[in-house]
């Protein structure tokens, strides 16, 4: 049952190894996962033959402005533009399920994360299924990327504060109320304007100024 639940993830990992020129095999992947990944990889190579041999899995470091924190990661592929390419595999779905998945991909933090790492504005998901490859293009404005970077920095600041204040042996304090202070993405920790831990400096985002600076 566990293997069945992980089938899609295993197929995707196997697919990426094939694109990287590796030879996946047992016991990491079973025969069904390898066969599905090989079929998808063959379809992908046929659609993008000019990209054969192009360097993939590009590592990056992004120093967040006005912060001590650095974002690090690996991008599937960066093409001239620059355009960030991220490839996903997808099994059989209904049109509605596929549309929902596409929207989840477009809204994910991965888009902003990779665009900052590549200093790009355009992100393309290539969604590979058994018989087709669908390209989905997503953009982020300069203001959106700045806001995302600041949110990451604030998240890291809060995590460090919580580790120092409460340690890591027990759960951190939380409140069962809706967010009202802009920290909704932080480890499920509910915070609002009247409840900010002592010693934590709340950073304000001057979006109106940022928008003027970016036109």
Describe the structure.
The protein contains seven helices and six strands, in the order αααββββααββαα. The protein has 215 residues and is an alpha+beta fold. It folds into three domains: 1-53, no CATH class; 55-140, Lambda Exonuclease, Chain A, CATH 3.90.320.10; 145-213, no CATH class. The strands form two sheets. The chain has a four-stranded mixed beta sheet. Strands 1-2 form a two-stranded antiparallel sheet. Helix 5 crosses helix 6. The chain is globular and about 50 Å long.
Strand-helix topology:
Elements: H1 2-5, H2 7-19, H3 31-47, E1 58-63, E2 70-75, E3 77-79, E4 83-89, H4 95-107, H5 109-118, E5 122-128, E6 133-139, H6 142-166, H7 207-213
Parallel strand pairs: 4-5
Antiparallel strand pairs: 1-2, 3-4, 5-6
At a glance:
The protein is 41% helix and 17% strand. By secondary structure, it is an alpha+beta fold.
**How many angstroms separate the termini?**
53 Å
Sheet bearing the most strands, described?
A: 4 strands, mixed
How are the strands of the biggest sheet laid out side by side? 3-4-5-6
Write down how many β-strands occur, each being a DSSP E stretch of 2 or more residues: 6
List segments where confidence is low: pLDDT < 50 over at least 5 consecutive residues.
Answer: 1-5
Could you name the key traits of this structure?
4-stranded mixed β-sheet; alpha+beta; two-stranded antiparallel sheet; 17% strand; disordered N terminus; 215 residues; 3 domains
